[in-house]
Amino acid sequence: MYHSKISGLGYYVPENVVTNDDLSKIMDTNDEWIQERTGIKERRHVIRGEDTTTSMGVKAAEIAIQRANVSKEDIDFVIFATLSPDYYFPGPGVLVQRDLGLKTVGALDVRNQCSGFVYAISIADQYIKTGMYKNILVIGSEVHSTGLDMTDRGRGVSVIFGDGAGAAVLSREEDVTKGILSTHLHSEGQHAEELALIAPGMGKRWITDVIADNDPSDESYYPYMNGQFVFKNAVVRFSEVINEGLQANNLEVSDINLLVPHQANLRISQFIQQKFKLTDDQVYNNIMNYGNTTAASIPIALTEAWEKGKIKSGDLVVLAAFGSGFTWGSVIIRW
């Protein structure tokens, strides 16, 4: 039995910075209102025709591969987490395989939204533990800006989200005291519609309906979020799944060197920090600079934390996420 370790990290965000003041020029909002409710000061939006979900994932992946000290020929498998693929199908996993010039390795797409990167890491970990693969490329990438309702009607959701990508290379680790110690995944589909994009789809709102209606006022074409309900569930599930991971490894909260939560809302992260009595040095947040980048948020934050020297060999690093589905999960890592 092997363990897997994160051998390389990288991220990419578009150059186009969109501040709260910028948004106040196109909808009825302001910097104070946004920061008070979310902690967000600015986010990145793609410039149409320049960046896509796949192209950003490729740029992040190239950095991660280089830092892992492996070649593209060493990558055995690709896992791509996103809610915003370039195409309805095929998914971006195969596009990354093509654009990076990888061998004809398998490519898997994960559609677990805010928990997508945690789910993808868990899958990669199992493949490596069983000996099937040695180096797996895991990507989380999102383009939200081209699908948001940028009017007063959509301001409660649209001010939250940003674009970007993060990537990690998971590699075989023979020292089973290091690397990913455990992963923990959950879902509760009874709340699926509390945070969702209903149309277009193949269910109640078919793609053909969207084409036929061509009605920009139809709110089902934009993301919906029951904010207070999501917040209440998030703080409970975050706490549960972090504790689950610690208990599975006979660890205590005091053993955590760094918690990297999904960057959904700074108030959620602060609530969890206070509940677990963690210091500012034990929690890494960057939502103020990038907004909520869904599946990309954890790998972007993890990469930044590593680049800033906040993660050292032997540290206990905890990743935790909660989002649409509802889905949630945690990853316990001995760096």
UniProtKB/TrEMBL annotation:
Catalytic activity: malonyl-[ACP] + acetyl-CoA + H(+) = 3-oxobutanoyl-[ACP] + CO2 + CoA
Comment block on domains: The last Arg residue of the ACP-binding site is essential for the weak association between ACP/AcpP and FabH.
Pathway assigned in UniProt: Lipid metabolism; fatty acid biosynthesis
Catalytic residues (UniProt): 114, 262, 292
E.C. no: 2.3.1.180
Domain of life: Bacteria
Keyword terms, alphabetized: Acyltransferase, Cytoplasm, Fatty acid biosynthesis, Fatty acid metabolism, Lipid biosynthesis, Lipid metabolism, Multifunctional enzyme, Transferase
Residue ranges, annotated region (ACP-binding): 263-267
Principal localisation: cytoplasm
UniProt record similarity statement: Belongs to the thiolase-like superfamily. FabH family.
PANTHER family assigned to the protein according to its UniProt record, in alphabetical order: 3-OXOACYL-[ACYL-CARRIER-PROTEIN] SYNTHASE, BETA-KETOACYL-[ACYL-CARRIER-PROTEIN] SYNTHASE III, CHLOROPLASTIC
Subunit structure: Homodimer.
Keyword Transit peptide recorded: no
Keyword presence, Disulfide bond: no
Name of protein: Beta-ketoacyl-[acyl-carrier-protein] synthase III
Gene coding for it: fabH
